[in-house]
Design brief:
The complex is a heterodimer of chains A (276) and B (252). Chain A contains nine helices and 13 strands. Chain A has 276 residues and is an alpha/beta fold. Chain B contains eight helices and two strands, in the order αααααααββα. The longest helix of chain B is centred in the C-terminal third of the chain and has 37 residues. The chains are: A alpha/beta (276), B mainly alpha (252).
Chain lengths: 276, 252
């Protein structure tokens, strides 16, 4: 379990990034961490790993204070950062160098994912394209079988087939004891993957709901003209018409459009939160 | 403090896999440079032989110069934010990371250098153009190793604290600290010996602190083991402790 209590963090004395941030994350879910540029999504992931220290407050993962960078905890966390440096060695050598740090590393799973992504195991890392490098690191991260998997913009740089492969690979290996946090701007790529939505704005968590709850409570309706009915809490223009959010009154769970939801929450968080 | 020899082994193994090429090139360059330096005097017309002082001088130069340079780049990953992120998030404790890197600079490098010098010396000796590797300087060698241990540990602290330009920054900071220490020492000396001073000028040329020569000798006997202890144990342990805490404080 991840427990963030009263977190305060800033890069400089003048501006505060997080102020009294509270967040608890439970096992068995894939969380989507959403927010505008500069709201601190990547910073929050780094704070969880102990790569930044809170100015105040406490972050514990399975009871370990993240600041301590306890190796027993770190071997159960894999962080796929948006940027990474890969050495000038073969993928096989890279695995030989890095895998001993992850006791649950599954070599056959790694080979299988790499095959799915169509990346040669004998390839030299520095000679791979950005997308191929990303696929290799994603394959490595999933093969570590760590309890915690933090991913910062994982689909950036992936081609269209790879995005779908990524979703399949991630879901097929997902366990009930795992917590996956995906920080992203590419919500559409992960629409069917995310089980819980967390939105950060102005240093606080302004939205934190399970997608299953959103499916029950919200209705996303497409129409040719803008519907200004009293039940509509948010509406925006989309190709071919409008999409609006209203309370779900028919009792059947509908599909959640995460991008529209995100815009609605940023626009008027109170209205959306009141519906749920 | 978490310590696992398995993880330390994994860290070392990782370094040897990732940095195999630079390590190989570095080793070849080091061997070539030592051979070149030893060969160069033999090209001179009035060359006689490579004296013991020659080997000793260059050995010390390589130990201190090369060793401290190596210390300054030992946390190579810290140069970039991504590198820091990747290294610090590796599943090993701060102590294990510091210990594994300290091993290279404080143990492996001096051993390798000594071995290389002895091999190259043996080569020149077999050609009959070299004196012995070490003579009367042997007494000084253990103090030089001790000094290297402390200087290397100091450089490790700088390598952790500074992300870029470790060498120049260390030089400036060390110079400043040295200057401050000298000023403080002079002021303390001035206060203690106030009877012998007018302003900042000493009025006596020969100040005998000790009345009896024996007292001075006894004091030397007491102070020497203490100085050795400080050089070999006290200072390195203190500096490693500081380096460890700096490592625990290191952020991206």
């Amino acid at each position: 379990m991840i427990d963030i209590q009263n977190l305060k963090f800033s890069y400089s004395r003048k501006t505060t990034l997080f102020e009294n941030l509270e967040l608890q994350l439970q096992e068995g879910k894939i969380y989507g961490l959403l927010g505008k540029n500069g709201t601190g999504k990547s910073t929050l992931l780094k704070l969880l790993l102990g790569l930044h220290f809170p100015k105040d407050g406490l972050i514990t993962i399975d009871g370990h204070n993240s600041v301590k960078r306890n190796p027993n905890l770190l071997e159960d966390i894999f962080f796929l950062s948006e940027d990474y440096e890969l050495p000038n060695i073969s993928i096989a050598s890279y695995v030989k160098a890095q895998s001993p740090f992850y006791p649950k590393f599954d070599h056959s799973k790694f080979a299988e994912i790499l095959k799915t992504f169509e990346v040669e195991k004998e390839a030299i890392l520095s000679q791979l394209s950005y997308g191929q490098k990303k696929k290799t690191v994603i394959a490595f991260g999933i093969a570590t079988n760590t309890k915690y998997l933090f991913m910062d913009e994982p689909t950036n740089g992936l081609d269209i087939p790879s995005k779908s492969q990524f979703r399949k690979v991630l879901l097929s290996g997902f366990r009930d004891d795992q917590i996956i946090i995906i920080s992203t701007h590419q919500i559409r790529d992960l629409n069917q993957l995310i089980e819980s939505v967390i939105i950060i704005e102005d240093g606080k968590i302004i939205f934190n709901k399970d997608v299953s709850v959103l499916e029950e409570k919200l209705s996303f309706n497409k129409s040719l003209s803008q519907d200004n009915g009293p039940s509509i809490v948010y509406s925006e223009l989309m190709p071919g018409g409008y999409i609006s959010i209203a309370p779900n009154t028919n009792g059947e769970p509908g599909e959640v459009e995460l991008e529209v939801l995100f815009n609605a929450v940023i626009n008027n968080p109170k209205a959306i939160n009141q519906l749920i | 403090m978490e310590v696992s020899f398995k993880r330390i082994k994994s860290l070392i193994q990782r370094d040897f896999i990732i940095y195999k090429k630079p390590l190989t090139y570095g080793l070849i360059s080091l061997i070539a440079l030592i051979i070149f330096i030893a060969w160069l005097p033999t090209t001179s017309g009035n060359f006689n032989r490579l004296y013991t002082d020659f080997w000793f001088g260059w050995y010390i130069t390589f130990l201190l110069g090369g060793g401290l340079l190596l210390c300054s780049i030992i946390f190579w990953e810290f140069k970039s934010a991504t590198g820091r992120m990747q290294y610090l998030s590796l599943p090993a404790s701060n102590f294990e990371k510091l210990f594994s890197r300290s091993l290279y600079v404080l143990i492996f490098y001096p051993l390798l250098l000594t071995g290389l010098f002895l091999m190259i010396y043996s080569l020149f000796r077999s050609m009959g153009i070299s004196d012995s590797f070490i003579g009367h300087q042997a007494v000084a060698l253990k103090y030089i190793w001790g000094a290297y241990l402390s200087l290397g540990s100091t450089m490790l602290i700088y390598a952790i604290v500074f992300n870029n330009y470790v060498g120049p920054k260390s030089f400036i900071v060390s110079g400043f600290i040295y200057l401050v220490c000298v000023i403080i020492a002079v002021l303390i000396f001035r206060i203690i010996m106030s009877d012998f001073f007018v302003g900042m000028t000493m009025t006596h040329d020969n100040v005998m602190i000790f009345d009896e020569e024996k007292k001075l000798e006894n004091m030397g006997k007491t102070l020497l083991p203490l100085a050795k202890f400080i050089l070999w144990v006290g200072l390195p342990v203190y500096l490693w402790t500081v380096a460890y805490f700096k490592m625990t404080e290191k952020q991206v």
